[in-house]
From TrEMBL:
Pfam families referenced in this protein's UniProt entry, alphabetically: Na_sulph_symp (PF00939)
Name assigned to this protein: Anion permease
Family (UniProt): Belongs to the SLC13A/DASS transporter (TC 2.A.47) family. DIT1 subfamily.
A GO MF label: transmembrane transporter activity
Subcellular location: Membrane
UniProt keywords, alphabetically: Membrane, Transmembrane, Transmembrane helix
Entry GO terms, CC: membrane
Membrane topology: Multi-pass membrane protein
Annotated organism of origin: Klebsiella pneumoniae
Transmembrane helix in keyword set: yes
Amino acid sequence: MKEKKTTIPPAGAVKPTTANKKPLLMMALPIIVAVLLLFVPVPDGLPPYAWHYFAIFVGVIVGLIFEPLPGAVIGITGVVVIALCSQWLLFSPDQMAAPGFKMAGASFKWAVSGFGNSTVWLIFGAFMFAAGYDKTQFGRRLALILVKYLGRRSLTLGYAITFADLLLAPFTPSNTARSGGTIYPIIANLPPLYGSKPNDPSARKIGSYLMWVAITAACITSSMFLSALAPNLLALALVKSIVGINISWGTWFIAFLPLGILLILAMPLLAYWFYPPEVKVNNEVPLWAARELEKLGKLSRNEILLLVFVCFALMMWIFAADWIEPALAALLVIVLMLWTGVLSWSDITNNKAAWNTFVWFATLVALADGLSSTGFIAWLGKEGGALMSGISPGMATIVLLLAFYLLHYLFASTTAHTTALLPAMLTIASTIPGMNMEVFVLLMVTSLGVMGIITPYGTGPSPIYYGSGYLPTKDYWRLGTIFGAIFLAALLLIGYPWMSMMF
Protein backbone atom coordinates (compact mmCIF):
# COMPACT_ATOMS: atom_id res chain seq x y z
CA MET A 1 0.00 0.00 0.00
CA LYS A 2 1.38 3.35 -1.04
CA GLU A 3 2.05 5.69 1.85
CA LYS A 4 0.26 9.00 1.75
CA LYS A 5 2.50 12.02 1.78
CA THR A 6 1.57 14.94 3.98
CA THR A 7 2.65 18.33 2.77
CA ILE A 8 3.22 20.87 5.50
CA PRO A 9 2.70 24.43 4.28
CA PRO A 10 5.51 26.85 5.04
CA ALA A 11 5.16 29.07 8.08
CA GLY A 12 3.06 32.12 7.41
CA ALA A 13 1.35 30.58 4.41
CA VAL A 14 -2.36 31.33 4.05
CA LYS A 15 -4.87 29.22 2.21
CA PRO A 16 -6.18 30.96 -0.93
CA THR A 17 -9.75 30.70 0.27
CA THR A 18 -8.83 32.30 3.60
CA ALA A 19 -6.87 35.05 1.84
CA ASN A 20 -9.85 35.89 -0.34
CA LYS A 21 -12.36 36.00 2.50
CA LYS A 22 -11.17 39.28 4.03
CA PRO A 23 -11.34 41.40 0.82
CA LEU A 24 -14.76 39.95 0.02
CA LEU A 25 -15.98 40.74 3.54
CA MET A 26 -14.65 44.29 3.28
CA MET A 27 -16.45 44.72 -0.07
CA ALA A 28 -19.67 43.31 1.34
CA LEU A 29 -19.64 45.34 4.58
CA PRO A 30 -20.78 48.71 3.09
CA ILE A 31 -23.61 46.91 1.28
CA ILE A 32 -24.67 45.05 4.44
CA VAL A 33 -24.70 48.28 6.51
CA ALA A 34 -26.71 50.15 3.86
CA VAL A 35 -29.26 47.31 3.50
CA LEU A 36 -29.70 46.99 7.28
CA LEU A 37 -30.41 50.73 7.56
CA LEU A 38 -32.88 50.50 4.67
CA PHE A 39 -34.94 48.07 6.73
CA VAL A 40 -34.87 50.24 9.87
CA PRO A 41 -38.27 51.96 10.35
CA VAL A 42 -38.28 55.51 9.01
CA PRO A 43 -38.09 58.06 11.88
CA ASP A 44 -41.18 60.20 12.47
CA GLY A 45 -41.27 63.41 10.45
CA LEU A 46 -38.69 62.24 7.92
CA PRO A 47 -39.72 61.39 4.34
CA PRO A 48 -38.96 57.75 3.48
CA TYR A 49 -36.79 58.70 0.49
CA ALA A 50 -34.58 60.90 2.74
CA TRP A 51 -33.98 58.02 5.17
CA HIS A 52 -33.21 55.65 2.30
CA TYR A 53 -30.75 58.20 0.92
CA PHE A 54 -29.10 58.41 4.34
CA ALA A 55 -28.76 54.59 4.40
CA ILE A 56 -26.81 54.60 1.12
CA PHE A 57 -24.72 57.56 2.33
CA VAL A 58 -23.72 55.67 5.49
CA GLY A 59 -22.82 52.67 3.33
CA VAL A 60 -20.49 54.88 1.27
CA ILE A 61 -18.85 56.23 4.45
CA VAL A 62 -18.29 52.67 5.72
CA GLY A 63 -16.73 51.85 2.34
CA LEU A 64 -14.42 54.86 2.61
CA ILE A 65 -13.36 53.83 6.11
CA PHE A 66 -12.43 50.23 5.21
CA GLU A 67 -11.56 51.00 1.55
CA PRO A 68 -11.99 47.55 -0.10
CA LEU A 69 -11.64 49.49 -3.37
CA PRO A 70 -10.03 52.88 -4.09
CA GLY A 71 -11.91 55.83 -2.57
CA ALA A 72 -12.85 57.19 -6.01
CA VAL A 73 -14.49 53.86 -6.90
CA ILE A 74 -16.48 53.83 -3.64
CA GLY A 75 -17.62 57.43 -4.17
CA ILE A 76 -18.65 57.04 -7.80
CA THR A 77 -20.44 53.76 -6.99
CA GLY A 78 -22.53 55.53 -4.35
CA VAL A 79 -23.40 58.35 -6.75
CA VAL A 80 -24.37 55.95 -9.56
CA VAL A 81 -26.54 53.80 -7.27
CA ILE A 82 -28.42 56.84 -5.94
CA ALA A 83 -28.83 58.35 -9.41
CA LEU A 84 -30.19 55.08 -10.83
CA CYS A 85 -32.61 54.70 -7.90
CA SER A 86 -33.37 58.42 -7.63
CA GLN A 87 -37.14 57.99 -7.58
CA TRP A 88 -36.82 56.15 -4.23
CA LEU A 89 -33.73 57.92 -2.84
CA LEU A 90 -33.31 61.45 -4.15
CA PHE A 91 -36.56 63.11 -5.21
CA SER A 92 -39.79 63.71 -3.34
CA PRO A 93 -43.18 62.73 -4.85
CA ASP A 94 -43.97 66.44 -5.26
CA GLN A 95 -40.77 67.01 -7.26
CA MET A 96 -41.49 64.07 -9.53
CA ALA A 97 -45.11 65.20 -10.04
CA ALA A 98 -44.07 68.75 -11.02
CA PRO A 99 -44.80 69.66 -14.68
CA GLY A 100 -41.73 69.43 -16.89
CA PHE A 101 -39.70 67.43 -14.36
CA LYS A 102 -37.44 64.94 -16.12
CA MET A 103 -36.07 62.46 -13.63
CA ALA A 104 -33.31 61.06 -15.85
CA GLY A 105 -31.86 64.51 -16.56
CA ALA A 106 -32.23 65.69 -12.96
CA SER A 107 -30.55 62.51 -11.66
CA PHE A 108 -27.59 62.92 -13.97
CA LYS A 109 -27.28 66.63 -13.14
CA TRP A 110 -27.11 65.78 -9.44
CA ALA A 111 -24.61 62.93 -10.04
CA VAL A 112 -22.09 65.22 -11.76
CA SER A 113 -22.80 68.33 -9.66
CA GLY A 114 -19.67 67.77 -7.55
CA PHE A 115 -17.45 68.18 -10.62
CA GLY A 116 -18.56 71.81 -10.85
CA ASN A 117 -17.56 72.54 -7.25
CA SER A 118 -14.77 75.14 -6.99
CA THR A 119 -13.00 73.36 -4.13
CA VAL A 120 -12.71 70.21 -6.23
CA TRP A 121 -10.95 72.15 -8.99
CA LEU A 122 -8.77 73.95 -6.46
CA ILE A 123 -7.62 70.58 -5.12
CA PHE A 124 -6.87 69.48 -8.69
CA GLY A 125 -4.90 72.69 -9.23
CA ALA A 126 -2.94 72.00 -6.05
CA PHE A 127 -1.76 68.67 -7.43
CA MET A 128 -0.65 70.38 -10.66
CA PHE A 129 1.28 72.98 -8.65
CA ALA A 130 2.98 70.10 -6.85
CA ALA A 131 3.83 68.53 -10.23
CA GLY A 132 5.44 71.83 -11.28
CA TYR A 133 7.51 71.97 -8.09
CA ASP A 134 8.62 68.41 -8.72
CA LYS A 135 9.45 68.69 -12.42
CA THR A 136 11.40 71.95 -12.16
CA GLN A 137 13.13 70.73 -8.97
CA PHE A 138 12.17 74.01 -7.28
CA GLY A 139 10.34 72.01 -4.63
CA ARG A 140 13.48 69.94 -4.09
CA ARG A 141 15.52 73.14 -3.74
CA LEU A 142 13.16 74.56 -1.09
CA ALA A 143 13.06 71.23 0.69
CA LEU A 144 16.85 71.08 0.74
CA ILE A 145 17.03 74.59 2.22
CA LEU A 146 14.62 73.55 4.99
CA VAL A 147 16.60 70.38 5.62
CA LYS A 148 19.92 72.25 5.64
CA TYR A 149 18.84 74.55 8.46
CA LEU A 150 16.15 72.54 10.30
CA GLY A 151 16.58 68.96 9.17
CA ARG A 152 18.71 67.62 11.98
CA ARG A 153 15.59 66.88 14.03
CA SER A 154 12.22 65.71 12.70
CA LEU A 155 10.43 67.76 15.38
CA THR A 156 11.97 71.05 14.22
CA LEU A 157 10.83 70.27 10.68
CA GLY A 158 7.30 69.83 12.06
CA TYR A 159 7.46 73.29 13.64
CA ALA A 160 8.86 74.80 10.43
CA ILE A 161 5.84 73.50 8.48
CA THR A 162 3.43 74.76 11.16
CA PHE A 163 4.87 78.27 11.25
CA ALA A 164 4.98 78.46 7.45
CA ASP A 165 1.21 77.82 7.36
CA LEU A 166 0.69 80.31 10.21
CA LEU A 167 2.45 83.07 8.25
CA LEU A 168 0.38 82.46 5.12
CA ALA A 169 -3.02 81.90 6.78
CA PRO A 170 -4.15 85.50 7.48
CA PHE A 171 -3.63 86.43 3.83
CA THR A 172 -5.03 83.36 2.09
CA PRO A 173 -8.83 82.95 2.29
CA SER A 174 -8.62 79.34 1.14
CA ASN A 175 -6.90 76.66 3.20
CA THR A 176 -6.93 74.46 0.09
CA ALA A 177 -5.04 77.05 -1.92
CA ARG A 178 -2.64 77.65 0.97
CA SER A 179 -1.95 73.99 1.57
CA GLY A 180 -2.10 72.71 -1.97
CA GLY A 181 -0.47 75.65 -3.73
CA THR A 182 2.36 76.39 -1.31
CA ILE A 183 2.82 74.04 1.68
CA TYR A 184 2.20 70.60 0.19
CA PRO A 185 4.35 71.02 -2.95
CA ILE A 186 7.27 71.92 -0.71
CA ILE A 187 6.94 69.25 1.96
CA ALA A 188 6.19 66.54 -0.64
CA ASN A 189 9.84 66.85 -1.59
CA LEU A 190 11.13 66.29 1.95
CA PRO A 191 10.40 62.59 2.72
CA PRO A 192 12.40 61.16 -0.24
CA LEU A 193 15.46 62.93 1.15
CA TYR A 194 15.19 60.65 4.18
CA GLY A 195 14.42 57.51 2.15
CA SER A 196 10.72 57.79 3.05
CA LYS A 197 8.47 56.78 0.12
CA PRO A 198 4.67 57.02 -0.35
CA ASN A 199 2.53 53.85 -0.29
CA ASP A 200 5.45 52.00 1.26
CA PRO A 201 6.44 50.85 4.78
CA SER A 202 9.20 53.49 4.65
CA ALA A 203 6.48 56.20 4.75
CA ARG A 204 6.66 56.06 8.56
CA LYS A 205 10.33 57.12 8.53
CA ILE A 206 9.26 60.78 8.37
CA GLY A 207 6.75 61.34 5.53
CA SER A 208 3.69 60.28 7.54
CA TYR A 209 4.63 62.58 10.44
CA LEU A 210 5.22 65.61 8.21
CA MET A 211 1.93 65.16 6.32
CA TRP A 212 -0.03 64.82 9.55
CA VAL A 213 1.61 67.93 11.03
CA ALA A 214 0.71 69.83 7.86
CA ILE A 215 -3.00 68.94 7.95
CA THR A 216 -3.28 69.75 11.68
CA ALA A 217 -1.59 73.12 11.10
CA ALA A 218 -3.98 73.91 8.23
CA CYS A 219 -7.00 73.16 10.42
CA ILE A 220 -5.75 75.21 13.40
CA THR A 221 -4.85 78.29 11.36
CA SER A 222 -8.21 78.07 9.56
CA SER A 223 -9.87 78.64 12.94
CA MET A 224 -7.40 81.29 14.13
CA PHE A 225 -8.14 83.87 11.43
CA LEU A 226 -11.40 85.01 9.88
CA SER A 227 -9.60 85.41 6.55
CA ALA A 228 -7.94 81.96 6.56
CA LEU A 229 -10.97 79.94 5.41
CA ALA A 230 -13.65 80.91 2.89
CA PRO A 231 -16.54 79.28 4.86
CA ASN A 232 -15.62 81.58 7.78
CA LEU A 233 -16.84 84.52 5.71
CA LEU A 234 -19.94 82.60 4.65
CA ALA A 235 -20.63 81.80 8.32
CA LEU A 236 -20.47 85.48 9.28
CA ALA A 237 -22.92 86.37 6.49
CA LEU A 238 -25.35 83.72 7.80
CA VAL A 239 -24.91 84.92 11.40
CA LYS A 240 -25.67 88.52 10.42
CA SER A 241 -28.78 87.59 8.44
CA ILE A 242 -30.22 85.11 10.98
CA VAL A 243 -29.40 86.62 14.40
CA GLY A 244 -28.13 90.12 13.45
CA ILE A 245 -24.66 89.83 15.07
CA ASN A 246 -21.63 91.43 13.38
CA ILE A 247 -18.23 89.87 14.07
CA SER A 248 -15.07 91.76 13.08
CA TRP A 249 -11.70 90.28 12.13
CA GLY A 250 -10.28 91.47 15.46
CA THR A 251 -13.13 89.99 17.53
CA TRP A 252 -12.66 86.63 15.82
CA PHE A 253 -8.89 86.75 16.40
CA ILE A 254 -9.23 87.60 20.11
CA ALA A 255 -11.90 84.92 20.61
CA PHE A 256 -9.60 82.13 19.39
CA LEU A 257 -6.22 83.64 20.39
CA PRO A 258 -5.32 81.70 23.60
CA LEU A 259 -6.55 78.41 22.14
CA GLY A 260 -4.84 79.07 18.80
CA ILE A 261 -1.44 79.80 20.38
CA LEU A 262 -1.68 76.70 22.57
CA LEU A 263 -2.61 74.42 19.68
CA ILE A 264 0.03 75.84 17.34
CA LEU A 265 2.74 75.25 19.94
CA ALA A 266 1.46 71.85 21.06
CA MET A 267 0.38 70.10 17.86
CA PRO A 268 3.77 69.27 16.27
CA LEU A 269 4.84 67.79 19.61
CA LEU A 270 1.57 65.85 20.07
CA ALA A 271 1.87 64.50 16.54
CA TYR A 272 5.43 63.51 17.42
CA TRP A 273 4.09 61.49 20.36
CA PHE A 274 0.99 59.96 18.76
CA TYR A 275 2.48 59.34 15.30
CA PRO A 276 6.25 59.31 15.85
CA PRO A 277 8.63 59.37 12.90
CA GLU A 278 11.18 56.57 12.80
CA VAL A 279 13.93 59.03 11.90
CA LYS A 280 14.24 61.45 14.84
CA VAL A 281 17.80 62.77 14.56
CA ASN A 282 20.10 62.67 11.58
CA ASN A 283 23.31 64.70 11.65
CA GLU A 284 24.42 63.68 8.19
CA VAL A 285 21.29 64.74 6.33
CA PRO A 286 21.80 68.56 6.75
CA LEU A 287 25.39 68.20 5.46
CA TRP A 288 24.19 66.14 2.53
CA ALA A 289 21.48 68.75 1.80
CA ALA A 290 24.13 71.49 1.62
CA ARG A 291 26.11 69.45 -0.92
CA GLU A 292 22.99 68.75 -3.00
CA LEU A 293 22.12 72.45 -3.06
CA GLU A 294 25.53 73.17 -4.52
CA LYS A 295 24.89 70.56 -7.25
CA LEU A 296 21.57 72.22 -8.17
CA GLY A 297 23.39 75.46 -8.89
CA LYS A 298 21.54 78.64 -9.76
CA LEU A 299 17.80 78.88 -10.32
CA SER A 300 16.79 77.62 -13.78
CA ARG A 301 14.43 79.40 -16.18
CA ASN A 302 11.54 77.06 -15.33
CA GLU A 303 12.14 77.42 -11.58
CA ILE A 304 11.97 81.21 -11.89
CA LEU A 305 8.79 80.97 -13.99
CA LEU A 306 7.21 78.60 -11.47
CA LEU A 307 8.08 80.95 -8.61
CA VAL A 308 6.52 83.88 -10.50
CA PHE A 309 3.36 81.87 -11.29
CA VAL A 310 2.96 80.65 -7.70
CA CYS A 311 3.39 84.18 -6.32
CA PHE A 312 0.89 85.39 -8.95
CA ALA A 313 -1.63 82.76 -7.76
CA LEU A 314 -1.01 83.71 -4.14
CA MET A 315 -1.63 87.39 -4.90
CA MET A 316 -4.89 86.53 -6.68
CA TRP A 317 -6.00 84.36 -3.76
CA ILE A 318 -5.24 87.12 -1.25
CA PHE A 319 -6.27 90.31 -3.04
CA ALA A 320 -8.50 89.35 -5.98
CA ALA A 321 -10.97 86.87 -4.45
CA ASP A 322 -13.84 89.28 -5.25
CA TRP A 323 -12.97 89.32 -8.95
CA ILE A 324 -11.67 85.82 -9.63
CA GLU A 325 -12.62 82.56 -8.01
CA PRO A 326 -9.54 80.91 -6.36
CA ALA A 327 -10.10 77.74 -8.39
CA LEU A 328 -10.14 79.73 -11.65
CA ALA A 329 -6.94 81.49 -10.55
CA ALA A 330 -5.34 78.06 -10.08
CA LEU A 331 -6.52 76.94 -13.54
CA LEU A 332 -5.12 80.16 -15.05
CA VAL A 333 -1.72 79.37 -13.54
CA ILE A 334 -1.90 75.80 -14.89
CA VAL A 335 -2.57 77.23 -18.38
CA LEU A 336 0.44 79.56 -18.01
CA MET A 337 2.63 76.63 -16.93
CA LEU A 338 1.51 74.65 -19.99
CA TRP A 339 2.11 77.53 -22.44
CA THR A 340 5.57 78.30 -21.05
CA GLY A 341 6.71 74.66 -20.90
CA VAL A 342 6.95 74.44 -17.12
CA LEU A 343 4.51 71.53 -17.43
CA SER A 344 3.56 69.42 -20.45
CA TRP A 345 0.09 68.05 -21.19
CA SER A 346 1.35 64.52 -20.44
CA ASP A 347 2.34 65.73 -16.96
CA ILE A 348 -1.33 66.58 -16.45
CA THR A 349 -2.83 63.42 -17.92
CA ASN A 350 -0.33 61.05 -16.25
CA ASN A 351 -0.92 62.41 -12.73
CA LYS A 352 -2.98 59.49 -11.39
CA ALA A 353 -3.10 60.82 -7.81
CA ALA A 354 -4.63 64.11 -9.00
CA TRP A 355 -7.34 62.44 -11.09
CA ASN A 356 -8.14 59.88 -8.38
CA THR A 357 -8.56 62.60 -5.75
CA PHE A 358 -10.52 64.76 -8.19
CA VAL A 359 -13.12 62.03 -8.83
CA TRP A 360 -13.24 60.94 -5.19
CA PHE A 361 -13.84 64.41 -3.77
CA ALA A 362 -16.30 65.42 -6.52
CA THR A 363 -18.52 62.43 -5.77
CA LEU A 364 -18.39 63.11 -2.03
CA VAL A 365 -19.46 66.72 -2.56
CA ALA A 366 -22.53 65.51 -4.49
CA LEU A 367 -23.32 62.89 -1.85
CA ALA A 368 -23.06 65.40 1.00
CA ASP A 369 -25.21 67.90 -0.89
CA GLY A 370 -27.91 65.26 -1.23
CA LEU A 371 -28.31 65.12 2.57
CA SER A 372 -29.50 68.74 2.45
CA SER A 373 -31.58 68.51 -0.71
CA THR A 374 -33.52 65.47 0.57
CA GLY A 375 -34.40 67.30 3.79
CA PHE A 376 -32.41 65.05 6.11
CA ILE A 377 -30.37 67.91 7.57
CA ALA A 378 -33.49 70.07 8.09
CA TRP A 379 -35.11 67.17 9.94
CA LEU A 380 -32.05 66.84 12.17
CA GLY A 381 -32.30 70.56 13.03
CA LYS A 382 -36.00 70.27 13.87
CA GLU A 383 -35.49 67.22 16.06
CA GLY A 384 -32.56 68.89 17.77
CA GLY A 385 -34.71 71.94 18.61
CA ALA A 386 -37.32 69.73 20.26
CA LEU A 387 -34.67 68.00 22.36
CA MET A 388 -33.19 71.33 23.51
CA SER A 389 -36.36 72.63 25.12
CA GLY A 390 -36.10 73.14 28.88
CA ILE A 391 -32.32 72.82 29.34
CA SER A 392 -29.92 75.51 30.60
CA PRO A 393 -28.11 77.87 28.18
CA GLY A 394 -24.67 76.51 29.14
CA MET A 395 -25.65 72.89 28.65
CA ALA A 396 -27.46 73.77 25.40
CA THR A 397 -24.29 75.46 24.11
CA ILE A 398 -22.20 72.36 24.84
CA VAL A 399 -24.74 69.96 23.32
CA LEU A 400 -25.19 72.06 20.16
CA LEU A 401 -21.42 72.44 19.71
CA LEU A 402 -20.97 68.68 20.10
CA ALA A 403 -23.70 68.05 17.52
CA PHE A 404 -22.36 70.71 15.13
CA TYR A 405 -18.83 69.34 15.42
CA LEU A 406 -19.59 65.61 15.17
CA LEU A 407 -22.07 65.99 12.31
CA HIS A 408 -19.10 67.08 10.19
CA TYR A 409 -18.61 63.35 9.58
CA LEU A 410 -21.54 63.68 7.15
CA PHE A 411 -19.96 66.46 5.08
CA ALA A 412 -17.23 66.55 2.46
CA SER A 413 -17.07 70.32 2.50
CA THR A 414 -16.90 72.91 5.26
CA THR A 415 -18.95 75.18 3.01
CA ALA A 416 -21.70 72.56 2.74
CA HIS A 417 -21.58 71.98 6.50
CA THR A 418 -21.87 75.71 7.21
CA THR A 419 -24.71 76.19 4.75
CA ALA A 420 -26.67 73.18 5.93
CA LEU A 421 -26.22 73.20 9.71
CA LEU A 422 -25.27 76.66 10.96
CA PRO A 423 -28.72 78.22 10.28
CA ALA A 424 -30.39 75.32 12.14
CA MET A 425 -28.03 75.69 15.11
CA LEU A 426 -28.52 79.47 15.28
CA THR A 427 -32.30 79.07 15.07
CA ILE A 428 -32.33 76.50 17.89
CA ALA A 429 -30.02 78.60 20.12
CA SER A 430 -32.03 81.78 19.64
CA THR A 431 -35.13 80.08 21.14
CA ILE A 432 -33.34 79.21 24.41
CA PRO A 433 -33.93 81.82 27.18
CA GLY A 434 -30.76 83.38 28.63
CA MET A 435 -28.47 82.22 25.80
CA ASN A 436 -25.41 84.48 25.22
CA MET A 437 -25.72 84.52 21.45
CA GLU A 438 -22.41 86.31 20.78
CA VAL A 439 -20.43 83.68 22.69
CA PHE A 440 -22.46 80.89 21.09
CA VAL A 441 -21.87 82.30 17.61
CA LEU A 442 -18.12 82.72 18.19
CA LEU A 443 -17.84 79.17 19.50
CA MET A 444 -19.67 77.80 16.46
CA VAL A 445 -17.83 79.73 13.76
CA THR A 446 -14.33 79.22 15.19
CA SER A 447 -14.92 75.46 15.25
CA LEU A 448 -15.23 75.34 11.45
CA GLY A 449 -11.49 75.08 10.86
CA VAL A 450 -10.47 72.57 13.52
CA MET A 451 -13.37 70.18 12.84
CA GLY A 452 -11.89 69.51 9.39
CA ILE A 453 -9.31 67.21 10.98
CA ILE A 454 -11.74 64.38 11.77
CA THR A 455 -12.06 62.77 8.31
CA PRO A 456 -9.98 62.43 5.10
CA TYR A 457 -12.67 64.46 3.34
CA GLY A 458 -13.55 66.98 6.07
CA THR A 459 -11.83 70.04 4.59
CA GLY A 460 -10.13 71.01 1.32
CA PRO A 461 -6.52 70.16 2.31
CA SER A 462 -7.50 66.72 3.68
CA PRO A 463 -7.72 64.94 0.31
CA ILE A 464 -4.40 66.50 -0.69
CA TYR A 465 -2.46 65.12 2.28
CA TYR A 466 -4.50 61.91 2.35
CA GLY A 467 -3.79 61.43 -1.35
CA SER A 468 -0.05 61.89 -0.82
CA GLY A 469 0.37 58.18 -0.05
CA TYR A 470 1.96 58.84 3.34
CA LEU A 471 -1.23 58.59 5.42
CA PRO A 472 -2.90 55.15 5.22
CA THR A 473 -6.67 55.12 5.60
CA LYS A 474 -6.71 53.41 9.01
CA ASP A 475 -4.06 55.82 10.34
CA TYR A 476 -5.97 58.87 9.11
CA TRP A 477 -9.24 57.80 10.70
CA ARG A 478 -7.49 56.88 13.98
CA LEU A 479 -5.52 60.13 14.17
CA GLY A 480 -8.54 62.14 13.03
CA THR A 481 -10.53 60.74 15.96
CA ILE A 482 -7.73 61.44 18.47
CA PHE A 483 -6.91 64.96 17.31
CA GLY A 484 -10.58 65.78 16.66
CA ALA A 485 -11.29 64.88 20.30
CA ILE A 486 -8.33 67.01 21.46
CA PHE A 487 -9.54 70.02 19.44
CA LEU A 488 -13.12 69.60 20.68
CA ALA A 489 -12.00 69.27 24.31
CA ALA A 490 -9.80 72.36 23.94
CA LEU A 491 -12.75 74.34 22.52
CA LEU A 492 -14.95 73.39 25.47
CA LEU A 493 -12.35 73.66 28.25
CA ILE A 494 -10.34 76.67 27.06
CA GLY A 495 -12.20 78.41 24.23
CA TYR A 496 -15.66 78.49 25.82
CA PRO A 497 -14.56 79.93 29.23
CA TRP A 498 -12.31 82.49 27.52
CA MET A 499 -15.07 83.67 25.16
CA SER A 500 -17.57 83.82 28.02
CA MET A 501 -15.15 86.02 29.99
CA MET A 502 -14.31 88.33 27.07
CA PHE A 503 -17.77 88.66 25.50
